[in-house]
Amino acid sequence: MNTSSTRPIVLCLSGHDPSGGAGLQADIEALMAQGCHAAPTVTALTVQNSIDVSDFRVLDAAWVLAQVDAVISDLTIAGVKLGMLGSVEMVDTVVQILKRLPNVPIVCDPVLRAGGGGSLGKDDVGYAMRERLLPIATIATPNLPEARILAELPQGTPDQCAEKILPFCQHLLITGGHGDEHEVHNRLYSRNGSFRTFTCERLSGSYHGSGCTLASTLAGRLALGEDMMHAVENALSYTWRALRDADKPGAGQHFPRRLPLDFCS
User: Fold this and answer.
1) So what's the pLDDT on residue 3?
2) Where does the Pyridoxamine kinase/Phosphomethylpyrimidine kinase domain start and stop, copy by copy (predicted)?
């Protein structure tokens, strides 16, 4: 029997990764695992695989707006996840979209670099995100290299970056994993002065789509009604398990296993 869906719907604005390790496919899988439904809106097309990204093309703003119009005219949006935007124009387009969705939790993953190091943003997209997008987001989830770009501190520590970024956003989760410490430290900062560090065991290897997985999961947990602290804790725990169980389908990075093998059985 067909019944109306009770799954929260999360609007995902991000790029398409043809390898399926990151981007919108990562969003869809992670949100399914949380019991949510992903409404994926394509902002950019990329040429990439498990090794690196070699090219990308940002879609015309009109195409993105048309996709969003079709979705929000029909579906009730309970959360938003932002991924690769790729250009200043796309940042401004997304700002227009978000103003139409008041009181909806917004998770901004400032995708500026691929896991292999290649650029996924042009012009001053990092500056535009900080100045115009973060102020209307609920939480931003940069890794440390991305936080340094947003803070304009090439060698900044997480605390130094947070001091520069927090005036622009309500909450900031700077993820670890880019050093060589035995444990990974993920730091949640809030504008009200609260702070918490979440620590997990460092896993060997490198991973393609870990940031997308975390941000999408967090958007799903917030859409389900969890408070910020529990949503972050649950998202980090789920992401760590997805990385622990990752496989390596190509010659480069591992892909997180966001769905269990028996998910559809």
Assistant:
1) 57
2) 17-253
Tokens 């102020």 found at: 135
CA distance 113 to 203: 21
Q: Is the pLDDT of residue 254 over 60?
A: yes
As a whole number of angstroms, the distance between CA 119 and CA 52 comes to: 9
pLDDT at residue 120 greater than cutoff 60: no
> Which of 116, 99, 121, 108 has the alpha carbon at shortest distance from 44?
121
pLDDT tens for residues 44-92? 999 999 999 999 999 999 999 999 999 999 999 999 999 999 999 999 9
Long-range contacts of 194-201 (CB under 8 A, 24+ apart): 196/229, 198/232, 198/233, 198/236, 200/236, 200/240, 201/240
SS3 content of the chain, % helix, strand, coil (to 5): 35, 25, 40
Bridge-based pairing state of the strands 77-82 and 171-174: unpaired
Question: What pTM does this model have?
Answer: 0.94
For residue 178, give every residue at least 6 positions away whose Cβ sits within 8 Å of its Cβ, in sequence order, or none: 143, 144, 145
Distance CA 94, CA 64 (A): 9
Match 């789920």 to its residue by tokens: 238
User: Minimal CA–CA distance to 32: which of 216, 210, 187, 209?
Assistant: 216
Region of poorest pLDDT, from 34-38, 62-66, 106-110, 118-122? 118-122
Cα–Cα–Cα angle for 147, 150, 155, rounded to 5 degrees: 55
253 phi-psi bin (left φ>0, alpha ψ -120 to 50, beta other): beta
